[in-house]
Amino acid sequence: MALTKQERRYRIKKRIRKIVSGTAERPRLNVFRSNKQIYAQLIDDLSGKTLLAVSSLNKDFVGTEGTKTEMAAIIGKAVAEKALAAGISAVVFDRNGYLYHGRVKQLADAAREGGLKF
What we know:
Blueprint: H1 5-17, E1 28-33, E2 38-44, E3 49-55, H2 68-85, E4 92-94, H3 103-113
Parallel strand pairs: 1-4
Antiparallel strand pairs: 1-2, 2-3
């Protein structure tokens, strides 16, 4: 029987998370995308804490016009700015089971342009 989209993504996510883990010096940049919004978090897996989070629902971005991919780029730049302000320059990218394409790729490219290394 064929897998549903959610089951397939969950399997890919488990396979990625076996390898990718964040530390305090090099946290994990986790990306979640829903149909309308996009979210990014920097996570320290050793202590189990979220260091910072940015989403398209933040007050700073609510009135911003643009397509979903343009919003992903804006969120990527915002994550990079906040991370650099917090003293974080290198991260491990976690695409969370999504294909590295479209909004996920746009967010990653914008974070790299903003100064994050991964």
